[in-house]
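Async update (no meeting this week)

Hi team, since we skipped the sync, here's where things stand on the single-chain job. The sequence we agreed to prioritize is pasted below, unchanged from the tracker. I ran it this morning and attached the output directly underneath so nobody has to dig for it. Comments welcome in thread, and please keep replies under the output.
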Amino acid sequence: MKANTGSSYITTADGTQIFYKDWGTGQPLVFHHGWPLSADDWDAQLMFFMGHGYRVIAHDRRGHGRSTQTVSGNDMDTYAADVAELVKVLDLKNAVHIGHSTGGGEVTRYVARHGTGNGRVAKAVLISAIPPLFMKSEKNPEGVPKEVVDDIRNGTANHRSQFYKDITIPFYGFNRPGATVLEGIRENWWRQGMMGGIKAQFDCVKVLSETEFYDDLAIIDVPVLVMHGEDDQICPFPTTGAKSVKLLKHGTLKSYPGLPHGMPTTHAEQINVDLLAFIKA
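Output:
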């Protein structure tokens, strides 16, 4: 196994530089962030699991964070191929891939296309994730309406800074009665979003909303934990997490009454303990 380097870049086949963190030793855990964030969104998990003897890897998706602000290749197949290149460079085996939101879609596509039958993947976790399909369609009549997705597109393209501030409120459930609004969390979300490239983030809205994962979920043959907040205002639980687990060969569902989309941050202690139990099982 290649020794970790702290943080570095790989260069993919099309010349895109992908930034990644690689800390600690032990069984590798690979963290995949959501739109429009970066590897920094996993800070609470990286520190926790490194402290429990795991090697933790988190990358910035192309167009996001410190990776190249790409104009092309902003699609789910390429995201998964980028992960495959990173896994190959780091020679990761028996890894657990953990994805939040759009990152859950990336995990699903990567494991289905690149992580079966080669010893690379031991388990996977989908947290507040977009599969099997985010947007409303004939195939997904209870999905998120296209008008809502168009609002995300418009906000990203035309007033990204303010829109990124505003979306943190439902993202973390800060609009619920009795919620304590944590400005540091909101500012960190905004910071991460504004680090990325607007074109890649705009393209990613189509990716996260229209990509179908029905076939991918059915292919995956490793144990998968689906974790989802029942008060998720971004990826509604009944149409995403609750449906995904039914399509998996070895899926387990753990749902959380009242928890928001951003629960890995707002409820990190609870999520980390449950993740650890699944990884060790």
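Quick observations from my side:
The first strand starts at residue 6 and ends at 11.
The chain has a mean pLDDT of 97.
Reply here if anything looks off.
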